[in-house]
Amino acid sequence: MINKLLYFILLSLLFLAGCIEQYYTELKNIESILVVEGFITSGTTQITLSRSVSLDVNSSNDFIAVDHAFVYVACDDGTQSEVSRSSGNGTYLITTGELKMDTKYCLVIQVEDHEYWSDFLSLPYTTPSMNISFACDDNDIHVCINSYGNDTQTGYYLWSYKEDWEIYSYMYGPWVFNEIVTSWNQLRYVRVANDLNSPNNRYYCWRRDSSRFYIMGTTDHLTDNNIREKKILSFSRTNEKTSVLYRVQVTQNRIHKEGYDYYSSVQKNMFQTGSIFSHIPYEITGNIKCITNPDIPVIGYVEVSTTITDVQWLDTIFFDPSYRNSQRCGYEDLMPDPGYGATAPGQGLVLFSQEPLYVTEHCVDCTKRSGTKRKPKDWPNDHI
């Protein structure tokens, strides 16, 4: 939204940026297997390539990005896209233009003297419309999807989401502490003004998150091809997500039944083992093959998909303000001013009249609550 495929159904075979890394087929040698993730879509197709790392290797990474491949999309009419080279981190961007209903497409990968092809697939029959709605009960806020089909064919869908929300500090402190490192490599704290007009202020912050798994759905058990009020995300009314302003972006991919079955198998295996790091049984196979050596295993499933996106905003209408009241931000006992060179007080400074009072830093510094000063693109509030 969000390298990694068998991490699946985690960032998104490209939309989640965190998917495939943790899954491996149970083969005699699972090291250095090519892992392919992505969808062939209209406009720009994004593909991520990596190689698996053996479980007995002591490494902080479960995959190795592949940045030296040549990747393109081929059509069954003999035409092809321009060849793409990596833009870094195993990511390849391919300009595909507008995909046609009467054409079949496949992904071609050339790397290390081998060539890999996915199965030729056409677009799913039509693209339904989709929108986001919000629902609220006594305890929770729900993000729901409404997908409306306009044909008689069963729909198979994958959804992923990205969230942004704004938070404020529980209290405003005109002074905060900044960490500095002296020339003697000692950590010191210095008091600085908490200017609301400065991009370094600690009062306004933003947070973000994205789906760790694809949310799946189908109309094969419904009387029509419409999916109504499907809950894809829920959080408590006391969650700070809607304490100021919240935005959610949902991406819907309509896929083929075979692709849906593949992702269902991967997800089922994950839930049965209880871990996202579990092996994928060898029976779960994708649609990519090494045509120069069919004995070389490949992990992944490349769909030809129709993709649509919706964005919705939510203000404080459903927010339960008791959350703020539950945060213990009362004033602590008076402390002497730590001053320059003092050890960390773990406090934020609030001034009343001329007397300095200190409270715990998470009360006056939103960055201490996992907030960031990176304002999301197109955010409507004018402060920084």
What does the model show?
7% of the residues lie in helices and 40% in strands. Among the domains are: 157 residues, no CATH class; 83 residues, no CATH class. β6 and β7 form a beta hairpin. The N terminus is likely disordered. Strands 1, 2, 3, 5, 19 and 20 form a six-stranded mixed beta sheet that branches. Strands 4, 6, 7, 8 and 18 form a five-stranded antiparallel beta sheet that branches. Strands 11, 14, 15, 17 and 21 form a five-stranded antiparallel beta sheet that branches. It is built from three helices and 23 strands. 37% of the residues are buried. The protein has 384 residues and is mainly beta. The chain is globular and about 80 Å long.
